[in-house]
C-alpha cells in the first residue's frame, strides 16, 4: 500500500467563505491509500488554505477546496502497458462510459480496445489494413470506434465490442489521414487528411456519414496543407482544424465547411492538435514547431493566453477536462505530460522522463478523474490521475 501525506500549510489565503471538509481516506483508488500526517480525523479548513501533498520525493500544493472537490491531479500512475504491441502508440480515447480505452499504434499497425480499469485487452486488430494507425474516436453512444490509418490511407468504423468492421474507405482521397472525430449526435465523422506538400489536392478536411462513409463535403487546398487534427464543438455546429504545414488553426461550419475564422503564422508553426472546451467557448491548440500551447476564443480566435518554450517542446497533444477547468498537454520533444489550469495556463503538475519518451496523445476520462497517455517511442499506454 502506497501512502500520500497531507500536511496543512501555515499559509492561509484571504477567503472567509464556507469551509472545506477534508475527510480521511477520501481518495482511496485502486492500490493507493491516503493518510494525513497531522490528523486522523476530518479537517475543517478555509477553502483557500494551502495543503502540501507529498508523494515520494515530490511535493504538490493544493487549495483545500480543490482537494475536497476531488480534483487532486498529481500524475500518479494507475497502470501502464508497454512493449512491441504498443510500438508507435499514438491516438487514445476513453469510451463515453469510461470503462474502455482505445489505442492506435502506428508502428505496430494496430488498434486495440482495453479495460480502462487495468489495461486488460478486450480485442486487438493488426495488419496492413491498420498500417500507420494514427487516431481513434468512440461514437457518443459507445457502440462504434472510428480509426484512421496514415500509411494505409484509410478511414474505418468498427464495432466497439469486438472490432468487427462496419465500413472502410481507402485510397488517395485519404492519403496520410491523421485525425478523426465523431459529431456529438453520432451522425457524422470529420477527418483531417494530412496529405503531402507536393500534392495539394489531397490536403484537406472531410465530413462523412458515420453510418456508411458517404461524403457530405470536403475542403481541399493549401489552406489545409498538413491537416492534422479535427474537433467538433459540443453543439455540433462547428469544426476546428489545425494544419501543420499551413501553420494554421481554423473554425468552420460543420454544415458545409464554410470558414468562420482562421489564424496562421509563426505562432502556430506546425499546429498539431486542437480541442473545444466543454462549453464551446474556447479552443486549445498545441503547435510543435512553435513549442507552444494556447487557448483562444472559439468565436473569433482571439487569444486568451499562450505558453511557449522548452517545457512544451514539440507539443503534440491537448485536451480539456470534462468540467473545462483543466488542460492536459503532451510535449513530444520534452518527453513530458502536464496538467494546467484552463483559465490561465498555471501549472498544476508535470511529469517528464523516459517513461514518456515521444509522448503523443492525452485524453481525460468522462468523469475527469483519470488521464490516458500514449508514448510513441516508449511504446506505452498508461492511465494516471
How would you characterize the overall build of this protein?
This protein has one helix at 64-68; strands spanning 2-8, 20-22, 32-36, 43-45, 50-55, 58-63, 77-82, 89-94, 100-105, 110-115, 121-126, 133-138, 144-149, 154-159, 165-170, 177-182, 188-193, 204-209, 215-220, 227-232, 238-243, 248-253, 259-264, 271-276, 282-287, 292-297, 303-308, 315-320, 326-331, 336-341, 347-352, 359-364, 371-375, 380-384. With 385 residues, it is mostly beta strands. It folds into two domains: 2-68, no CATH class; 78-384, YVTN repeat-like/Quinoprotein amine dehydrogenase (Methylamine Dehydrogenase, Chain H), CATH 2.130.10.10. The strands form nine sheets. It has a four-stranded mixed β-sheet with strand order 3-1-5-6. A four-stranded antiparallel β-sheet has the order 7-34-33-32, with no helix packed on it. The relative contact order is 0.11.
Question: How many structural domains does the protein architecture include?
Answer: 2
Q: Approximately how much helix is present in the residues? A: under 10%
Termini Cα gap: 17 Å
Strand content: over 45%
Strand order of the largest sheet: 3-1-5-6
> So what's the overall shape?
globular
Unreliable stretches (pLDDT < 50, length at least 5) are 1-44, 68-73
Instruction: Tell me the Rg in angstroms.
Output: 21 Å
Oligomer: single chain
Secondary structure: number of strands: 34
CATH topology of the largest domain: Methylamine Dehydrogenase, Chain H
Name of the CATH architecture of the largest domain: 7 Propeller
Alpha-beta classification: mainly beta
Provide a count of the helices: 1
CATH homologous superfamily placement of the largest domain: YVTN repeat-like/Quinoprotein amine dehydrogenase
Query: How would a textbook summarize the main sheet?
Result: 4 strands, mixed
| Overall pLDDT metric | 83
Amino acid at each position: 500500500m502506497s501512502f500520500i501525506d497531507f500536511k496543512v500549510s501555515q499559509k492561509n489565503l484571504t477567503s472567509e467563505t464556507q469551509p472545506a471538509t477534508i475527510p480521511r481516506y477520501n481518495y482511496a483508488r485502486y492500490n493507493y491509500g491516503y493518510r494525513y500526517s497531522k490528523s486522523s480525523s476530518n479537517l475543517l479548513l478555509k477553502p483557500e488554505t494551502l495543503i502540501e501533498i507529498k508523494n515520494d520525493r515530490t511535493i504538490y500544493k493544493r487549495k483545500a477546496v480543490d482537494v475536497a472537490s476531488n480534483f487532486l491531479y498529481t500524475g500518479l500512475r494507475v497502470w501502464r502497458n508497454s512493449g512491441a504491441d504498443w510500438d508507435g502508440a499514438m491516438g487514445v480515447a476513453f469510451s463515453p462510459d469510461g470503462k474502455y480505452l482505445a489505442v492506435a499504434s502506428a508502428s505496430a499497425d494496430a488498434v486495440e480496445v482495453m479495460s480502462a480499469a487495468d489495461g486488460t485487452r478486450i480485442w486487438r486488430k493488426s495488419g496492413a489494413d491498420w498500417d500507420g494507425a494514427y487516431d481513434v474516436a468512440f461514437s457518443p453512444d459507445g457502440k462504434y470506434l472510428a480509426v484512421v490509418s496514415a500509411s494505409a490511407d484509410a478511414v474505418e468504423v468498427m464495432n466497439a465490442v469486438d472490432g468487427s468492421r462496419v465500413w472502410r474507405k481507402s485510397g488517395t482521397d485519404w492519403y496520410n489521414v491523421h485525425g478523426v472525430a465523431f459529431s456529438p449526435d453520432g451522425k457524422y465523422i470529420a477527418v483531417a487528411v494530412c496529405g503531402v506538400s507536393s500534392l495539394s489536392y489531397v490536403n484537406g478536411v472531410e465530413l462523412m456519414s458515420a453510418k456508411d462513409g458517404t461524403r457530405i463535403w470536403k475542403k481541399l487546398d493549401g489552406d489545409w496543407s498538413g491537416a492534422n487534427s479535427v474537433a467538433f464543438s459540443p453543439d455540433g455546429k462547428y469544426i476546428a482544424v489545425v494544419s501543420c504545414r499551413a501553420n494554421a488553426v481554423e473554425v468552420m461550419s460543420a454544415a458545409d465547411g464554410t470558414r468562420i475564422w482562421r489564424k496562421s503564422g509563426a505562432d502556430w508553426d506546425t499546429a498539431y492538435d486542437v480541442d473545444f472546451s466543454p462549453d464551446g467557448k474556447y479552443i486549445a491548440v498545441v503547435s510543435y514547431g512553435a513549442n507552444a500551447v494556447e487557448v483562444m476564443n472559439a468565436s473569433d480566435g482571439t487569444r486568451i493566453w499562450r505558453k511557449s518554450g522548452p517545457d512544451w517542446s514539440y507539443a503534440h497533444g491537448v485536451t480539456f477536462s470534462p468540467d473545462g477547468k483543466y488542460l492536459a498537454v503532451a510535449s513530444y520533444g520534452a518527453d513530458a505530460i502536464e496538467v494546467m489550469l484552463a483559465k490561465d495556463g498555471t501549472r498544476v503538475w508535470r511529469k517528464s522522463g523516459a517513461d514518456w519518451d515521444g509522448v503523443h496523445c492525452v485524453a481525460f476520462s468522462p468523469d475527469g478523474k483519470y488521464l490516458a497517455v500514449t508514448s510513441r517511442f516508449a511504446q506505452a499506454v498508461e492511465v494516471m490521475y
